[in-house]
């Protein structure tokens, strides 16, 4: 059998063994922004999972851009060295390429860990002042961010650039800028969070201006042979939020500036969840399909894609070029290997795990032997 999901893909000078991506997953486990052994274990296990690309969690470009006190930052030598240790593991043992998501939480920063409720932190709890496109809190009971000045905008743009330079030195092959889930770039794009009346608010052209400035500045320093993409929330699901039609236009503009892919997610600018009935396996795939068709850019599909046959269909039918998993990988860290068995193809195994291939001990996996024969 053949599989499009397990076909190789070369983007610029970066070669992926297949189209499976491990999406960024916040772990809230860093200390003073420094990743540690938890991150080495978490990301290291995925580097040998059989996936083609692993993207490290949302990493703040400055301290006030963290979602929580447990989120990593990439602005100091100590933080850079800690990430370099993880990427060295990828280089020494991994099958997957290593990527990182660079982010700024904006008005959604300064919150507690999810297992502590995830609520905004007060100053006596270690909270900090936040910024956003407008002085509009995320919801009732949240801190009010300071409306960003031109100086703030320049500083944060330059922080993205500095973090990208560090990511290159570390050896990451892929950088994804976080423009989704109601964080800073997403806040500028969405009329829900962006109430500015200057050239950075109002029309879509104005609302996308600052995210494009950040992208353009990072593109200028990120090596041409490496991959640079953006994660977008394709829709806010409610008025006056961003729409899929607008996200197609944003993607067109990003492509013109040299963006290599769009990671298509949704929501985050409202505290409410997507409307009842809109979620389920593959529920965000139509966004990836619309952006791919409307802009011509490479897309990554996400959202409850755990069924190998669904993942195969997404790629084989041309709805998206890559499929990303998050919680599905936490539940089954070797999902790519198991998906390959279901689809009757071979995944990429590290040599230390080679003997676990079902084809090498068929009596233990008769169902996969039959699938391969069919």
End-to-end separation: 8 Å
Q: What is the count of structural domains? A: 1
CATH C-level: Alpha Beta
Major sheet: size, sense and barrel closure?
8 strands, parallel, barrel
Overview of this protein structure:
With 374 residues, this protein is α/β, with parallel strands linked by helices. It has a single domain (9-373), classed as Aldolase class I (TIM Barrel). It contains twelve helices and twelve strands. The chain has helices at 37-47, 77-93, 150-170, 184-189, 204-207, 209-221, 244-256, 285-295, 308-316, 327-331, 335-343, 366-373; strands spanning 9-11, 14-16, 20-22, 53-60, 97-103, 131-132, 146-147, 174-179, 227-233, 261-265, 298-301, 322-325. Strands 3-4-5-8-9-10-11-12 form an eight-stranded parallel β-barrel, surrounded by seven helices. Strands 1-2 form a two-stranded antiparallel ribbon. A two-stranded parallel sheet has the order 6-7. Helix 1 packs parallel to helix 2. It is globular, with a radius of gyration of 20 Å.
Please give a quick description of this structure.
With 374 residues, the chain is α/β, with parallel strands linked by helices.
List the helices and strands and how they pair.
Blueprint (H helix, E strand, L loop, with lengths): L8 E3 L2 E3 L3 E3 L14 H11 L5 E8 L16 H17 L3 E7 L27 E2 L13 E2 L2 H21 L3 E6 L4 H6 L14 H4 L1 H13 L5 E7 L10 H13 L4 E5 L19 H11 L2 E4 L6 H9 L5 E4 L1 H5 L3 H9 L22 H8 L1
Parallel strand pairs: 3-4, 3-12, 4-5, 5-8, 6-7, 8-9, 9-10, 10-11, 11-12
Antiparallel strand pairs: 1-2
